[in-house]
Write a structure and sequence with these properties.
By secondary structure, the protein is an alpha/beta fold. It has one domain (about 15-175): 3-Layer(aba) Sandwich (Rossmann fold), CATH 3.40.50.300. It has helices spanning about 25-35, 45-50, 65-80, 110-115, 120-135, 135-145, 160-175; strands at about 15-20, 40, 55, 60-65, 85, 100-105, 150-155. The strands form 2 sheets. Strands 2-5-1-6-7 form a 5-stranded parallel β-sheet, with helices on both faces. It has a two-stranded antiparallel ribbon with strand order 3-4. Helix 1 packs across helix 7 and helix 4 (about 110-115) runs antiparallel to helix 5 (about 120-135). The radius of gyration is 17 Å and the shape is globular. About 35% of the residues are buried.
């Protein structure tokens, strides 16, 4: 018989797919969810749908995310397991939630084109390009999670995305709950 305080272990893994806006997080996460039957949690969409923010940043043209509200909103499903979390930040999520943290990286000229097509300009465009140049999200992931679960993946084109989805699908198939 289990002790009352011994929580049940996740039977399906949780992954975080992070990276600078425009690196292919949502495209990769959507394809990976289809291939693995894991639940895709797009945090940007969730913030808008559930008002998990503290207003609007006019300079960066985005919502000011309330990290506590986001974590409270998804805590139960994260504890269940079987999730792919898609967001450009990672340092506020509890370390215990993730079995793998994927940081997508894109060549700056490719990223510049993607972001300008999205209408990014001014400080929003330059901040995101600089973030990619200086590998801010990779460093954030390495500082926030055990380095052995952080994986950087190139995401410049459709072939890269397909290869990444295949690699990550294999990882899910081979994952075993920690003992």
């Amino acid at each position: 018989m289990m002790a009352p305080d011994s929580g049940k272990r996740r039977q399906r893994p949780n992954k975080l797919v992070t990276g600078t806006p425009g690196t292919g997080k949502t495209t990769t996460s959507t394809a990976l969810a289809e291939a693995t039957q894991l639940r895709h949690l797009n945090i940007g969409d969730l913030v808008k749908e559930k008002n998990l923010h503290d207003g609007w940043d006019n300079d960066l043209q985005c919502h000011i995310i309330n990290e506590d509200l986001v974590c409270d909103e998804i805590e139960d499903v994260m504890e269940e397991g079987g999730n792919i979390v898609d967001y450009h930040g990672c340092d506020f999520f509890p370390e215990r939630w993730f079995d793998l943290v994927v940081v997508l990286q894109t060549d700056n000229s490719v990223l510049y084109d993607r972001l300008t097509k999205r209408g990014y300009e001014g400080s929003k465009l330059s901040n995101n390009i600089e973030s990619e140049i200086f590998q801010v999200l990779l460093e954030e992931a390495k500082e926030s999670y055990p380095e052995n679960i952080v994986m950087a993946m190139k995401s410049d084109n459709v072939d890269d995305i397909s290869r990444n989805v295949s690699t990550l699908t294999d990882w899910v198939r081979n994952w075993h709950p920690p003992s």
